[in-house]
């Protein structure tokens, strides 16, 4: 079913708890055949059912074809007054020079061995991540943005370092972590172009005329690209312990981090920041952004089957607690911002709450709390959560919480 973008302007989000409809979530541990999973040995098969339903109904199926990707080191140096090593790796997705993704890696120079890392996609290019003049500008399509002085769809040097707090690279290095990040637009530009740009055409069979209803979209491609980033780390980055890489993302890229962690068990930890609708927030609450709104505004993010659930959340064979539970038994962290009601903080907390049974199969504790915690109070054992004051953004406070959680789980 096709989405109807013209209706987007008519949407009025609900921000009142009293207007949240009554709902029943699909049971996380109930198999498609009606029986219930009772122990951790039975989780992988149930997990495969959940992965399959979310692939076919929300993000689209990941391609099975292997591309002849090539990986090279394009630059190495130092940053942050000699505290960090910088590596810039390039992943070519085909034999051609484009599409290609540059992975910027900062790691602590004084480390005695391979360190744990955070890997995430950025919104506006690697050069925005730190005020480091040696970061290579992204080639190819670039999002226009007045704040970044870009109106010609090309990256420019004026926005170097604009997302410094968002990535807190120097802080991470000081804490003994590496940061690896790539620009999402190098995998797939964030525009609804009929899937003629980015990596999608590399997978399309000759004569392809349009997507099947369960064919992947842009979030699927971004998640796939994160796995190629992890491949690059495994192959070319001795500074990072590839078995201790947390995948992280904010907002649309937080939905992406959840989906990447779901599909690639090599990610040792998953962090999703204010991903909201289609990410960490329960769809059935219809609080803030809804499926109707997201699929009309951003139809290219998901597969077409997701449109079936526009204003029909009760008919969904899954909800977002099942997406986040695909992280289990790996450590999982979600954080929300109090002013970011569009992303439904309570809906994110409740998705985590309802993912706890998967962790319990492994004898692992979850949030340790049944209701939203007070502001600025990180909670949880193997499932972490915090709600901080303020708006839709990734702040230093957020990073401090992820680092504390990562120190506990990734050492
Ligand atoms: C929009 C969109 C959200 C998304 C956000 C972002 O607000 O509606 O679903 O998470 O953009 O990516 O910043």
From TrEMBL:
Ranges for domain 4-O-methyl-glucuronoyl methylesterase-like: 214-363
This protein's UniProt keywords: Hydrolase, Serine esterase, Signal
Record-level Gene Ontology MF annotations: carboxylic ester hydrolase activity
Entry's transmembrane regions: none
This protein's record includes keyword Signal: yes
Coiled coil: none
Name listed for the protein in its UniProt record: 4-O-methyl-glucuronoyl methylesterase-like domain-containing protein
Portion of the full-length sequence here: 262 to 672 of 672
